[in-house]
Amino acid sequence: MFCELFYVKTDEQWFLDFEAYQTQDKVIIKEICILRGEECYNYFIIGPKSHTIEDSKTLQYQYNMHRLKWLFGDYTFNEAMIDIALKLKSDNVYIKGNEKLKFINRILPSVNFIELENIPAFKNLNNCFHERCNVRHGNHCARRKAYELRYYMVNRDNKYFF
């Protein structure tokens, strides 16, 4: 793999993370957060009425982890994605995980998503617990994880190899 050193001015770069329910054929985002400098936008998405959490033991297990009720949310999926697209435009957005990158890139193709590789698992990134969202649904919080990504980048002397 080709490696390149680059410097990230973290106050000018976007970071994104999301929490989602997964079924065999769908990913259903329940919380998504975008962060740049002091701008932090946290979206809670209402689960589609075509599915219910009781439909599957897998979804029930994921609920126990995420603690985001299926019908809880402030936005429909489309409302959230339109607002996020308007904010991100074609900017660089850092995201952790190739599967997340591929998924979100299909939804927001004009954004320049950049995968952050070789970053420790989120369970080992424990510097931003105070940034958890107001829902207080635990460590599986997109807002906390977006802040963790930025914190990691800042404390790597603004250098990252990929």
Tally the helices: what do you get? Answer: 4
Shape: globular
Structural class: alpha/beta
> What's the average pLDDT?
85
Strand order, sheet with most strands: 4-3-2-5-6
| Unreliably modeled segments | 1-7, 158-162
Overview of the molecule:
With 162 residues, the chain is an alpha/beta fold. It has one domain (5-161): Nucleotidyltransferase, domain 5 (2-Layer Sandwich), CATH 3.30.420. It is 28% helix and 25% strand. The protein is built from four helices and seven strands. A five-stranded mixed β-sheet has the order 4-3-2-5-6, sandwiched between helices. Helix 3 links the parallel strand 5 (92-96) and strand 6 (112-116). The chain is globular and about 45 Å long. The chain starts with a strand and ends with a strand.
Protein traits:
5-stranded mixed sheet, single chain, Nucleotidyltransferase, domain 5, 162 residues, 7 strands, two-stranded antiparallel sheet, alpha/beta, 4 helices
Overview in brief:
Helices cover 28% and strands 25% of the residues.
Walk me through the topology.
Layout: E1 5-7, E2 14-22, E3 27-36, E4 39-44, H1 57-66, H2 77-88, E5 92-96, H3 98-107, E6 112-116, H4 142-154, E7 159-161
Parallel strand pairs: 2-5, 5-6
Antiparallel strand pairs: 1-7, 2-3, 3-4
